[in-house]
Request: fold
Amino acid sequence: MSPSQSKDQSPIYNRLIQERGDVLAETRAVAEQVLRQAQQALDWSAVRPGWQPGERAGTFSAFG
Reply:
């Protein structure tokens, strides 16, 4: 029996949802939102390296 089938066949669960709201669905939605925010925060694709390939890392020239 899947979770959706057990919800449909359980009058106690249905009454709790009516009284308290669907906490599982709300939790799932918040978790998905947090996951999207974390993916955006950890997206480094727009960051470019401070040095170009072919240059020696760690060297500095004040004249370019």
Observations:
- The chain has a mean pLDDT of 80.
- The chain is about 55% helix and 0% strand.
- The two ends are 68 Å apart (CA to CA).
